[in-house]
Amino acid sequence: DQQVKQNSPSLSVQEGRISILNCDYTNSMFDYFLWYKKYPAEGPTFLISISSIKDKNEDGRFTVFLNKSAKHLSLHIVPSQPGDSAVYFCAASSQTGANNLFFGTGTRLTVIP
Amino acid sequence: NAGVTQTPKFRVLKTGQSMTLLCAQDMNHEYMYWYRQDPGMGLRLIHYSVGEGTTAKGEVPDGYNVSRLKKQNFLLGLESAAPSQTSVYFCASSPRAKNIQYFGAGTRLSVL
């Protein structure tokens, strides 16, 4: 059963506007969450993360929000740029053991110039 | 700085053939992982290793074996390839104290 879910397979946004990518999880043991970005024919690249002791983490144009009670997190990209067009994966882990990650199915973001 | 390097990048096998995928990392990371990515299913963990000489099963280990004889290398083996193993395989590594994984560029495998 999928423990991390990204229910939107794709998203299109105009350049300069905000992109919001969503992720839900079911396992209450998860306490660390990450977003990865993937271009075609490349491996996933780490983008931003958040620990469960926080509800927001910001890095430049990228902000991740965590709502533990709803088991929901989101990635905001402001302003969106054409170079942001990629597949975004949400991942979750428990900070015990071997740092194993559980991935969502990904959301393909297209930023239209 | 090469990071995580996977070889080969592409491979076509016939059903029943065997092969080994090699992953090498130069970041001195303790942990290493093998994933497969299939359409619509995200990345799923096959096997992982928390140190030289140790391996453990992930979510989808059947049909695969792994070995970690050296800290910097993690090998994924297919003893008798099946069409269901057609996929893109990613290797990753992680330092013990930091819960972030760094990925290689992937190996695209087709089993006919």
**What's the SSE pattern of chain B?**
EEEEEEEEEEE
Strand content of chain B: over 45%
The helix/strand order of chain A is EEEEEEEEEEE
- Terminal CA distance of chain B reads 36 Å
Instruction: Name the structural class of chain A.
Output: mainly beta
Shape of chain A, please? globular
Q: Which percent bin holds the helix content of chain A?
A: under 10%
Query: How many extended strands of chain B?
Result: 11
Secondary-structure content class of chain B? mainly beta
Poorly predicted runs of 5 or more residues of chain B:
none
Distance between the termini of chain A: 38 Å
> Would you count the extended β strands of chain A for me?
11
From the structure provided, what is the oligomeric state, counting identical versus distinct chains?
A: heterodimer
* Morphology of chain B: globular
- Output the number of helix runs of chain B: 0
What can be said about the biggest beta sheet of chain B? 7 strands, mixed
Contiguous uncertain segments of 5+ residues of chain A: none
Average pLDDT of chain B works out at 94
Q: Which terms would index this structure?
A:
heterodimer, A: mainly beta, six-stranded mixed β-sheet, five-stranded antiparallel β-sheet, 53% strand, B: 112 residues, mainly beta, seven-stranded mixed β-sheet, four-stranded antiparallel β-sheet
Task: Please describe what this structure looks like.
The complex is a heterodimer of chains A (113) and B (112). Chain A is mostly beta strands and 113 residues long. Helices cover 0% and strands 53% of the residues of chain A. In chain A, the strands form two sheets. In chain A, strands 2, 4, 5, 9, 10 and 11 form a six-stranded mixed sheet that branches. Chain A is globular, with a radius of gyration of 13 Å. By secondary structure, chain B is an all-beta fold. Helices cover 0% and strands 53% of the residues of chain B. Chain B contains no helices and eleven strands. In chain B, the strands form two sheets. In chain B, strands 2, 4, 5, 6, 9, 10 and 11 form a seven-stranded mixed sheet that branches. In chain B, strands 1-3-8-7 form a four-stranded antiparallel sheet, with no helix packed on it. In chain B, a hairpin with a 2-residue loop joins strand 5 and strand 6. Chain B is globular, with a radius of gyration of 13 Å. At the A-B interface, strand 4, strand 5 and strand 10 of A face strand 4, strand 5, strand 9 and strand 10 of B.
